[in-house]
Amino acid sequence: MTLEDYKNGQVLVIDKPLHWTSFQVVNKIRWHIRQKFNIKKIKVGHAGTLDPLATGLLIICTGKFTKTINDYQAQTKEYIGTITLGASTPSFDLETEIDKIYPIEHLTKELIYKTTAQFTGKILQKPPIFSALKKEGKRLYELARKGETTKIKPREVTVQEFEITKIDLPKVNFRIVCSKGTYIRSIANDFGFAMNSGSHLSKLRRTKIGSFLVKNALEPLEYIEKQL
C-alpha cells in the first residue's frame, strides 16, 4: 500500500490482543506508517474502544476515512465471553479484585436462561465507574482510581440477542448482539444481581461490527509485518 492509499483512507480490520489498549493499537500502526513513509503526520483512529482485558475486532481508520469513524461506531456489534457468578468487582471485570462473594447454590440452568430476557430489547444500564466516559472533563476511571465516587445516569441501549452458550457454574458463556454504547461489563454485573447473587465479566471478545468479522482480522504486529 502507498502513502497516498493511507492518506486517501483505509479501513484496517485488527484483532486486538489481550492487555493492549485500543490507543496502543492506533499508536503502533500510526508510528509504523510514519516510519515507513518518512512523514511527520498521518491521521489514524479507532471506531470504538475495547477494554485492555477484552480481545477482538477493532476497526482502524486512516487519513480521510477518519471522518467515517462515527458511522462504524454506530453499527451493531457482537461479543462472546464469560460471566463468573458468585462474586463481584468494582470495575465489573478483572481489572479490579473481587470485593464481595455471593451464594450460587440456588442458581439453576432454567433461572439463568430465563434471566437473559430481562437484558434483551431496550434496557436501561448504568455504565461502569471504571470507564472512559467523561464527567466534567475527566475520565470516570481516573476518578474511580482515586477512590472518588460520582453519580452516573443510566442510559438506554438495545440488546438484540443474549444467548447463553454454556453453563459450567460458576462460569456462564454467552453471545450478545447489541447497539452502540452497550457496556457488556454492566450486563455481566447486573446479571448476577437479577438472580439474587453477584457476578462479573471474566472474559470478552468482540467478534463482529456491522459486516466486519474478527476471523478476517490481523493482530497489530501481524498487520505491520504483512502490510507495512
Assembly type: single chain
In this structure, how is the largest beta sheet organized? 9 strands, mixed
What Rg do the Cα atoms give? 19 Å
Low-pLDDT windows of residues: none
Describe the protein in words.
With 228 residues, the protein is α+β, with helices and mostly antiparallel strands. The chain has 2 domains: 3-74 and 212-227, Pseudouridine synthase; 77-209, Pseudouridine synthase (2-Layer Sandwich), CATH 3.30.2350.10. Helices cover 25% and strands 33% of the residues. The chain is built from 7 helices and 13 strands. The protein has helices spanning 3-8, 22-37, 69-73, 109-115, 140-145, 184-193, 220-227, and strands at 11-16, 44-46, 54-62, 77-85, 87-88, 100-101, 121-125, 134-135, 138-139, 155-168, 171-178, 199-209, 212-213. Strands 1, 2, 3, 4, 7, 10, 11, 12 and 13 form a 9-stranded mixed β-sheet that branches. The protein has a two-stranded antiparallel ribbon with strand order 5-6. Strands 8-9 form a two-stranded antiparallel ribbon. The longest helix is centred in the first third of the chain and has 16 residues, at 22-37. The mean pLDDT is 92.
